[in-house]
Design a protein that fits this description.
19 helices; mainly alpha; two-stranded antiparallel sheet; Serine Threonine Protein Phosphatase 5, Tetratricopeptide repeat; two-stranded antiparallel ribbon; disordered N terminus; 3 domains; 6 strands; globular
Length: about 425
């Protein structure tokens, strides 16, 4: 065995805690023996069907069933990456495990460069991983789904990055990765961490773009990407995706379309078209306001409202910009107009409540926040605003209860932590 600690046959330094070794014939035989034992233990999984994993907001996807191990020919000229166990600085060959080898190859695949320029070593590692554990895509997908459900998004994405390296161009891997990034962004947004959330939304947008760039994206990529762009108020891109999904035939290359999703897509397409939300002025107004350019956003949304005064989304954008400029009375009027025209969302009521709070209408602010909370029970921004409102009204015990709830949902929330730091011992 030769150790290549500190260098890599892939170009550049190896990932952390990875060393490269050349396998002797006896070690190769040992790997074959252990892999064969694994296949015997898991023989009952060979008929494992493709499956979908519901995670509340959508479905995670598997596309690779278990099967027989493909024939694999070892190449002694290509060093093998091995991940060192925690606390160890070198490899004891007697303790070299199949898991250490698999983990090393997956970590290299996950952190390596993308595309065919990766070279033969990457292809070799992919082949070896799949030969040693043919059902690994299903196993790792299930592990990533479980981690995402438990809120461990970092580890879920690490697993999916390894899968992305292992199965380049896999529709299910790219879709799952985009969905986990979207879910993490939503979690950060609920926690009031808007800057961090925006970064994750941009990462999710790029991930959906990568999935859509596949030669033949599976139908659920179109649907989920359409819903994502809708959430981001990028209505022109949402319209393209949702139109494409709604126009697909009932059965497409083995994929049976979900009739409820198709009906939903048709409804959303009609709504976007009827309200003119793909309008360039609307899109640019949203972009300006989202990036903190409120005055530029107002300049773009006003022409839209002149053409379409009955569209609540335009009044919401105007109210949002005015609220951020602290023009409380004007913002209140715009947001109330949005509510009147059908924009009864938690965001609208939360924005309106902030204006009412600043205008001294505490009962009105509370009414809107409580209504918003009934539809979005774990929205930290709403709960935190209820705490601020209670504090302004002199209800300190009630405020403490709201901020305590905030910390239960997000232990690092800065406003809630500051409240208890300021009020310790009182």
């Amino acid at each position: 065995m030769l150790s290549f600690e500190g260098e890599s046959p892939l170009g550049g330094p190896p990932p952390a805690r990875i060393v490269f070794i050349r396998l002797s014939e006896s070690l190769r035989d040992r790997i074959r023996f252990r892999a064969a034992g694994f296949h015997d233990e898991h023989h009952g999984h060979e008929d494992h069907d493709d499956e979908y994993h519901d995670h509340g907001g959508g479905e995670y996807h598997d596309e690779a069933p278990y099967g027989e191990a493909p024939v694999f020919v070892f190449d002694s000229s290509i060093p093998i990456p091995v991940e060192l166990p925690a606390g160890e600085e070198g490899i004891d060959l007697e303790r070299l495990s199949l898991e250490m080898i698999l983990s090393g190859m997956l970590r290299v695949l996950g952190q390596g460069a993308e595309g065919p320029e990766q070279g033969p070593a990457f292809d070799y590692y992919r082949g070896l991983v799949l030969a040693l554990r043919p059902g690994i895509q299903v196993e790792l997908t299930e592990a990533a789904v479980l981690k995402a459900r438990n809120g461990d998004y970092a580890l879920a994405l690490e697993i999916l990055d390894s899968l992305k390296g292992l199965c380049p161009g896999s529709s299910s891997v790219l879709l799952n990765r985009a969905m986990v990034l979207e879910e993490r962004a939503e979690a950060l947004e609920r926690a009031g961490q808007e800057t961090a959330a925006e970064g994750e939304y941009l990462a999710a947008e790029a991930a959906y773009g990568e999935a859509l760039a596949l030669e033949n994206p599976v139908p659920d990529i179109l649907y989920n990407a359409g819903r994502f762009f809708l959430k981001r108020r990028d209505y022109s891109r949402a319209l393209v995706c949702l139109r494409a999904y709604a126009s697909l035939e009932d059965s497409l290359e083995g994929f049976e379309l979900d009739r409820e999703k198709r009906e939903d897509a048709l409804v959303l397409v009609r709504d976007i078209e009827d309200h003119g939300l793909e309008d360039e002025d609307f899109r640019e107004a949203w972009e300006h306001i989202r990036r903190g350019r409120e005055r530029e956003g107002m300049e773009r949304i006003r022409p839209f409202l002149e053409r379409r005064p009955g569209v609540w989304n335009g009044w919401f954008l105007l109210g949002w910009a005015l609220r951020r400029l602290e023009r409380w009375g004007d913002a209140r009027s715009s947001l109330e107009k949005a509510l009147e025209l059908g924009g009864d969302t938690s965001d609208t009521r939360n924005e309106l409540a902030i204006c009412l709070m600043e205008l001294g209408d505490y009962p009105g602010a509370r009414r809107h926040l409580e209504t918003a909370l009934r539809g979005d029970g774990e929205n930290i921004k709403i709960i935190s605003n209820l705490g601020v409102l209670a504090l302004r009204a002199g209800k300190k015990e009630e405020a403490a209860g709201f901020f305590r709830t905030v910390l239960e949902l997000e232990p690092e929330d800065p406003l809630a932590r500051q409240y208890f730091k300021t009020n310790e011992g009182r």
